[in-house]
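Budget justification aside, the reviewers requested a transparent look at the raw inputs and outputs of the sequence design task funded under Objective 1. We therefore reproduce one unedited record. The lines immediately below are the structure tokens for a 117-residue chain.
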């Protein structure tokens, strides 16, 4: 695993998200109910940033919503929880070390890890 620091924990609003632009990918760092997640910042249906949407619970799952058409994506797995999206987005392992949020975008994107505060 190749974790790299992407932001400070205080940069990510509670129950919100922060767009982080890395060399070859845009990542949504999401903080929700004491957990920190990282996923591809691109709706698989509409190709718009997920960080423009709300972070909420949908059918019991922590999600981020695409503002354009309302699809929600499970923060833990990247799977869409409702239509119109049918394809998942990549998720990435996260570690929080003190005030630093570290993300590994080089690992298998289908094996998410959330980091607690």
């Amino acid at each position: 695993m190749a974790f790299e620091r992407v932001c400070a924990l205080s940069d990510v609003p509670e129950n919100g998200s922060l767009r982080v632009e890395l060399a070859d990918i845009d990542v949504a760092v999401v903080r929700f109910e004491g957990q920190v997640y990282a996923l591809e910042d691109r709706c698989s249906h509409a190709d718009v940033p997920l960080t423009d949407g709300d972070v909420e619970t949908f059918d019991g799952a922590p999600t981020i919503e695409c503002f354009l058409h309302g699809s929600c994506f499970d923060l833990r797995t990247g799977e869409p929880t409702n239509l119109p999206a049918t394809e998942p987005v990549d998720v990435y392992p996260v570690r929080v070390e003190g005030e630093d949020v570290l993300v590994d975008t080089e690992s298998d994107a289908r094996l998410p890890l959330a980091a607690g505060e």
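Residues 14 and 31 are 5 Å apart (CA to CA). The chain has no helices and eleven strands. Computational costs for records of this kind are itemized in the attached budget.
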